[in-house]
Predict the structure.
Amino acid sequence: MRLTGKHVVITGASSGIGAQIALKVAGQGATPVMLARSEEKLTTVCENIKNVTGVDALPYKLDVSDASAVSAVFDRVLDRLGTIDVLVNNAGFGVFDLFHEADIDEAKRMLDVNVLGVMACTRKLLPHFLVRNSGHILNIASLAGKVATPKSAVYSATKHAVVGFSNALRLELAGTNIYVTTVNPGPVETHFFGIADPSGEYVKNVASFMLAPEQVAEKVAAAIGKRKREINVPFSMNVGARLYQMFPSVLDSLVGKWMNKK
Ligand code: NJP
């Protein structure tokens, strides 16, 4: 019960990786505070957590792209619990398309949720963490935030932004007991692909790399309370990402076509 008594706020907790993180931290004694737009899905996930762990997770309806709603919901959570120990910025979505066919309103929506949503939640909670000189922010970015691939220009841009934002924040907080961890998964089997890849083509092409959301959640839960810079999974894709960052031109010409899986 490593996380007993901890209050862990998770955005995008109504399905996929967020729901699994909630289950894992509840299993380690924490109270998950579950944020998402769908109250119905949140209720189902909270019932499952109660059945499996006996923990009462706390659901709150929130669209993270609405900064004033973020502020109001975090105030309500703080009024109720007094403290928040951990923030997992997980809410996000992707749309895979060629940029010349992209809908710019959809691009804006992706930036609003994936980037400004992360910033709004972090900005709201950071003063609370600073007063207590304690806290952990875990941002679910992506290996797409390290290596951009075709048909994900906007999605990759949002995740590069999350990685850059997290890196700067970590340096700003270096003299404190507030940790910033970036989580960069490859493909994970969740509802994400219902929006990102309705044809199923990408999912088929990356089947051998596909992670279960439980695997990512396990690593996230294990990192809580530790000064860990990044979680990069799966191992094979992380090796590829590191090589890419060292030799981008070489890899563009050698495996650029192979990287086009969408
Ligand atoms: O996807 P999914 P994942 N405000 O669709 C919520 C990243 N990632 O678990 O609002 C608040 O099952 C939505 O809830 P609802 C990915 O970019 C994934 O895979 O009720 N919440 C749901 O709970 C994302 O950042 C893969 O519809 C909002 C959750 O977000 C994170 O992992 C690979 C919201 C999405 O759950 C979790 O995605 C990778 C809003 N405006 C990174 N909009 C992957 N799956 O392959 C959505 O590298 N949500």
Remarks:
- Residues 11-18, 36-38, 41, 62-65, 90-94, 113, 140, 142-144, 185, 187-188, 190-192 surround NJP (CB under 6 Å).
- The chain has a mean pLDDT of 96.
- The longest strand covers residues 178-185.
